[in-house]
Amino acid sequence: MYAIGEKPGIGSYRDESGHTITLNDPDDALPPCSRCGRFQTTTWTRVP
Ligand SMILES: [Zn+2]
Question: Is pTM, for the whole model, over 0.85?
C-alpha cells in the first residue's frame, strides 16, 4: 500500500472506499482522495 505523496509509478490505485485514480506520469505523486476529502488519510493500493 502507498501513502499520499509517494510516487509508485504509472498505474491505477484504489483507496479503502473503492475510489480509484490513475497516475499517468512516473513523477506524479499520489494525492489525497478528492471524494473522501482532502483531510482524510488515504491509503492507496495498486489495482492489478
Ligand atoms: Zn476515496
Answer: yes
